[in-house]
């Protein structure tokens, strides 16, 4: 069948659908009448049927591309959400994210315990034998803060002067966000392997923190180090724990799918895990901003502890109470 023959009798409907879709995209759903609004799903299904036939009889590629683009645009208009990006993000952070976190209570406790175990183990190992530090912490991350580092050098890092707006809030904060988000997403993504790699990643990240604490403890700088870590660590480590908890949610539904098949259980509960992981990545963006610039702007240990306490309270209130008991849903 030639393209011209195929188009005859169908093209009028395609053009009408394209006109309606274009009007909605430019001026909103109110730009079409009630009759046109009722007709749009019929025109969309007709165009979708034409695309299916066109693919089976291998017509010219230009026509295929046109129908594919038209049906995709029409799908978003007919079945897409009727909310703006800002409204969607607002709903996510006001209701979706905190609610998903509250539902993952015991997963978060397990993730927290895994990281706490790593911190304790890292501290004990390095404090008993300093050379463990080199085995635990990569050279690039250590930055010279190893067993041979002097107390003066460690102190100079803890209280280093501010590098300026560009270096602190743009360059360094962006670097931190990229690296931290990659590790966090990995701990979520490997949850399908029964959660074992997720727990190992949490323990390993804890080992690194514990190793740094031990090195500073040996130089009499433990309190200053905890203050230096806490100012961003409340948000950053919290995000790592949440991503790990999201991975454990996935692991649970694979190991214990209940009355559903494993794929069905993942389809039902995977959204909760994804919401937690996405929200945790947003937390890492905030943590990168704090670590990249605010940590060195606030160069007094007591102030750092105060800032960390405030962030801990704010996150606690947010997760415990934000959107609690409310039934909110995005309008379809």
In sequence order, what are the helices and strands, one letter per element? HHHHHHHHHHHHHH
Task: Please tell me how large the radius of gyration is.
Answer: 27 Å
Query: Span from first to last CA?
Result: 40 Å
Summed up, the domain count is 2
Number of helices: 14
Low-confidence segments: 327-332
Count every beta strand, where a strand is a DSSP E run of 2 or more residues.
0
* Strand content bin: under 5%
Indicate the structural class: mainly alpha
- Overall spatial form: elongated
Helix share bin: over 70%
- Quaternary class: single chain
User: Which whole number gives the mean pLDDT?
Assistant: 88
How is the main sheet built? none
Keywords: Membrane, Transmembrane, Transmembrane helix
Pfam family, one: SpoIIM
Transmembrane segments: 104-126, 169-192, 199-217, 229-251, 272-290, 302-321
Protein name: Stage II sporulation protein M
């Amino acid at each position: 069948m030639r393209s011209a023959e195929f188009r005859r009798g169908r093209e009028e409907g395609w053009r009408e659908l394209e006109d309606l879709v274009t009007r909605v995209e430019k001026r909103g759903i109110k730009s079409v009448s009630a009759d046109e609004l009722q007709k749009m799903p019929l025109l969309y299904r007709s165009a979708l049927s034409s695309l299916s036939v066109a693919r089976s009889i291998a017509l010219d590629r230009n026509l295929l591309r046109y129908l594919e683009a038209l049906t995709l645009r029409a799908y978003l208009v007919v079945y897409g959400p009727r909310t703006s990006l800002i409204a969607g993000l607002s709903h996510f952070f006001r209701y979706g994210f905190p609610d998903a976190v509250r539902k993952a209570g015991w997963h978060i406790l397990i993730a927290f315990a895994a990281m706490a175990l790593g911190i304790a183990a890292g501290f004990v190992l390095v404090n008993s034998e300093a050379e463990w530090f080199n085995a635990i912490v990569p050279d690039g991350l250590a930055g010279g803060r190893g067993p041979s580092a002097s107390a003066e050098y460690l102190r100079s890092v803890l209280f280093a002067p501010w590098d300026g707006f560009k270096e602190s809030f743009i360059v360094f904060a962006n670097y931190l966000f990229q690296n931290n988000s990659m590790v966090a997403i990995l701990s979520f993504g490997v949850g399908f392997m029964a959660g074992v790699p997720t727990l190992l990643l949490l323990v390993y990240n804890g080992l690194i923190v514990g190793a740094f604490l031990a090195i500073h403890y040996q130089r009499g700088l433990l309190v200053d180090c905890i203050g230096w870590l806490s100012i961003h660590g409340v948000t950053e480590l919290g995000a790592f724990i949440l991503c790990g908890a999201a991975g454990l949610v996935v692991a649970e539904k694979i190991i214990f799918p209940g009355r559903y098949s494993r794929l069905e259980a993942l389809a039902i509960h995977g959204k909760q895990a994804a919401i937690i992981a996405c929200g945790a990545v947003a937390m890492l963006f905030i943590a990168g901003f704090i670590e990249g610039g605010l940590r060195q702007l606030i160069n007094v240990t007591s102030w750092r502890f105060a800032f960390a306490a405030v962030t801990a309270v704010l996150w606690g209130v947010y997760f415990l109470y934000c959107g609690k008991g409310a039934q909110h849903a995005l309008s379809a």
